[in-house]
Every structure is written in C-alpha cells, then in structure tokens.
Amino acid sequence: MLKNERLEKIMNILKTRKVISTEELQSKVYCSRSTLRRDLIELEKMKQVKRNHGSVSLVSSENIEFSYISRVNEKSQEKKYLTEIAEDFIGNNQAIFLDASSTVYFLCEVFETKSNPIVITNGLQTAQRLNMFQNVTTYCSGGELKFASNAAVGELSTQFFDHFKADIAFISCRGVNTEGLFEANQRQALVKQRMIKNADSTILLCDHSKFNTSHFFKLADFHLIDSIITDRKPDKAILDRMTKSGCEVLW
After folding, report:
1. Considering the entire predicted model, what is its pTM?
2. Count of beta carbons in the 10 Å neighbourhood of residue 126
3. Which of 101, 157, 195, 216 is least surrounded, with the fewest CB atoms within 10 Å of its CB?
C-alpha cells in the first residue's frame, strides 16, 4: 500500500472510531509497527491526529485546517457534482481566480475544453494541473508555502491578486452558518478576500458538510457572494439568509 493510501485509510478509520489502539490500527492498515509510527508522526505534525500511550485519536476539526493530502480525495463525488454545476458559469476568453482548496481543484478539467482561458491561482497543485493544458494561460502567486498545504499565502500572495481583474472567482471555505462564510486559517482567508475584491463575481463551491459549522476567522458575508453551489438544499435558516442577501443558491 502506498503512503498516501495508508494515510487516507488511517484517517477514514479514525473518522469512524475517533480513538483506536495502535495495535488494532496496525492490523487494519496491514503495515509494520515502524511504518505506522512514521505515518502517525506525520499526521500529528499536520494536526490531524493525537498520539497517546498505546492509542491514537482524531483531532477535533474545529478551527483546524487539515492537510491537502487528506482533503483532496475526501467527498470526491460531491466535488465532482459541484463541478458539473459550476461548469455552466465558465465560458471562453475569461479570466478566472481559483483558490487553493481541494474542492476548487476539481474545476481544472473544465478548462481543457475552453478557448483562451486565463487562470490565476495560489494553489500549487492547481497550477501544475492547469499547466498540462496548452490552451490555458496560468498565473501562480508567490508567497510562503504553507506547511502540508497546496497554498501560497502571506503578503506577497495576497498583493499578487491586485495585479489582475477576473470575471469570476471560484472559492471554497471551511464553514457556513447564518452569519456567513468562515475559514480555519486567516492567511488563507485574506488571499480569498482579495480574490473577491478583484473579481466581477464570486462563486462559492461548498458541499453540505460545511453548513452549520463555524470557525474562528470570518471570510465573507453573503452579500459579497453572487452564487453558492452545493450538493443539497441548505437548512431553511441558512437558505433564507443567503437568498435575502442576494445570493443565487444552486444544488
């Protein structure tokens, strides 16, 4: 089993069990004790698990930004569904902002069939994928590469987006409640805020698991978002707040 496959399997087990002995986890992952120890040390550095004497537990997701490796394959079917709806907004000869989220990453394949798209992103994996398409002009921001992340962040990355004017910004977030959009990392949020500022319209891609959750940094109020694409109808309280703020909500 490859390393990334092991890490994903460990996380899937912990999402179900929350706490498990290292001995039982080793038997479920089918790896040596030393391999499991190295994997758990890496996951602990990413702040996804906590190692205890003889056991390992899942870290609460509240205000924790999980690594790109763990997020990119999570809820892949939901992300593909969001992409199918979002594709209707993307035309030819457009300038597009894409954030560094694993959700927005799924949009990359759409641009292969478009004429002369220009894409500006702070996502390294996103930029690398788009660079495989000869028809796409891709700009990637500089800045500090955030640990275990796909994202360039910091002042250099934030200011980079002031040099562009986009037709659409596609972003995701960590949580949505009746008060708006939230992020678990303020530097990620500041880059996204600059995208919103410099785009003619902003579209949020957000699966249902993000609703009714709150994190410590406020990303945006609903009136700054033109459309919200999700995979299920939101609860009435959130949906009412979205629509009263002028958001188009699609699912």
Report:
1. 0.74
2. 25
3. 216
